[in-house]
Amino acid sequence: MSAPETFEGEDGEAGRAAGFFRSRWQGTAPLDRLFWRDLVLVGTAINIAVSVLALILLGLKLPLALVLAVHFAPVPYNFFLTFAVWRTAEKSGGVKASLMTLGAVLWLILVVVI
Cα dihedral angle (102, 46, 110, 83), rounded to 10 degrees? Predict the structure, then answer.
């Protein structure tokens, strides 16, 4: 697996992170990788880890505002991933892309509600 492409004037970790987000937002990342690895595997793992952390904080009787802030922290990233799948699927077209768009929206509803 090769490192993500960096863009002109970008180097190091910041450049790779910017390249990661830019490639997904512009629809240049492969749809299969974006949906299965980024959204389903990594996105779900992040949400589970953050939910467990929020439950631990709640069990420690920390302020509810802090617990809720931690629990809802990944929501912007969830929206980013869902819209990135949507934008990339629009470019590729086809039944598979439509199913991945539907799957991304259902995934977003699931992770935001739970």
Answer: -30
Cβ burial of 87 (10 Å; 0-12, 13-18, 19+) is middle
Across all residues in the chain, what is the average pLDDT? Answer: 90
With CA atoms as reference, report the closest residue to 44 among 102, 52, 95, 22: 52
Cα atoms found within 13 Å of the Cα of residue 84, Cβ hemisphere only: 26
Can you state the angle between helices 44-59 and 95-113, rounded to 10 degrees? 0
pTM of the model: 0.82
On whether the CB atoms of residues 85 and 102 are closer than 8 A, the answer is no
pLDDT at 11: 62
DSSP character string of 64-99: HHHHHHHHTTTHHHHHHHHHHHHHHHHHH-SHHHHH
Measured from the Cβ of residue 40, the count of other Cβ atoms closer than 10 Å reads: 17
Sorted by where each begins, the domain ranges of the chain are: 28-111
How far the first Cα of the chain sits from its last, in Å, is: 33
